[in-house]
Design goal:
five-stranded antiparallel beta sheet, about 10% helix, binds zinc ion
Length: about 240
Amino acid sequence: MQARHIRPGQGQAVELKTGQLLQIQTVKGKQVADFVAFTLGDTGEYLSTSATRATNATIVPQLGMTLYSNRRQPLFEIVEDTVGRHDMLFACCDPVRYEMLGAEPGHASCRAALTDALTDYEIGFDRIPSPINWFMNVGIQQRGELEIREPLADAGDYVVLRALKDVIAAVSACPQDMGPTNAFNPTALMIRVFRDAPLPDPPVISNGVPPPTRTGTASPATPPGRLHDTPEATVVRVE
Ligand SMILES: [Zn+2]
């Protein structure tokens, strides 16, 4: 299989060259993917959720958005998104969080999984940045209270990011099973790296109307499955 399968509590790291595409996909749906990234060869520069929020003036990742580094340099563009609801406010789950929740010692966590995945790059536990949590569904109340809800992602839903710089990206399948983060039942993710062949225009849809996004946001809708139907988007073996 020309892809990487990530079980809950595990992480995977991949290197992306400028222009390459990274697809992050749920297998069974309702599963959060914690995501961090660093500049290849200069890990002092990393994907910054605060710079991304500030530069885009929003707290929710959206289709077409550029994701920025802590030096406010563009690292990724969100080029496809079949869900439309993600989070860039919450920290990774970590051992202390599970201890606070009363879990048995040794519960798997995104922070530990990402640390393990990045071992070869010598990025330790304390240098894991605040993540983008793909598919995490956070409701925001009137006074700023945050409510974690079950993800809107169904089986096979995905996002695709275009690298705007050579980067190391790491993804963990969140093992949170003590709340609605992953609908109380963490499941696997798939990640794939595609070459930098330009994508063609989206296929013409018979009735001339693109499919609606599930959230009804103003983002331009992109037909799901575009990558899979595109012969130019050759899959790169990443295992
Ligand atoms: Zn997690």
